[in-house]
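I am writing to request your help with a piece of structural work I have in hand. A protein sequence and the structure tokens that stand for its backbone fold form the material at issue. Please examine both parts with care and let me know of anything in them that strikes you as inconsistent. The record follows directly beneath this note.
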Amino acid sequence: MGTTSVLRRNHAAELMGGGVALVDLETRATKDDHQALRLWLRLLSCTVRVENRVRSGLRQEFATTLPRFDLMAQLERYPAGLRMSELSKRLMVSGGNVTGITDQLEREGFVVRTLDRGDRRAIAVKLTPAGLKRFREMAASHEQWIVELLGGLSPEEKQTMLGTLSKLKSHLSAVSAPASSRKPGSVERRK
């Protein structure tokens, strides 16, 4: 099964009245699986659903892709532009991917390559006025989609989730650090 959600008729649902059950990454888990695994699959399932909505909206409303949007988002934050290597690092993709996306956006007049002011040997990429205008249109729609998708949560629930996920992110950074810099400790197996 891929990482996208699909609707599929579930035999049990059919037996109970012909309903359609949503099948996604979380359906891989069982009640006997470790709580951490079930939580991870739920987080992943939610992320995939949000990302699919964003990808679909960008494709339908703006005839563009999420990687192009992400590159433009980075450039919007840095009006003087960013080096290709910096874009690659920030987007966590290869230099070839950044080059391909930049080539497309440049042909459409949304970005321009310039000599980097700090190093004349390096090339920087920046948004053109048309690119900035287009990005801001997309960003406004993107924000609306996210607000709509998270609309089922109260402001208090969102704040609680922000705090909890912040704690998780800090923990993940600590356990992802090289073994020599980790604090000794044990990992709880089942909860």
Residues 1-9+17-63 form one domain. The radius of gyration is 21 Å.
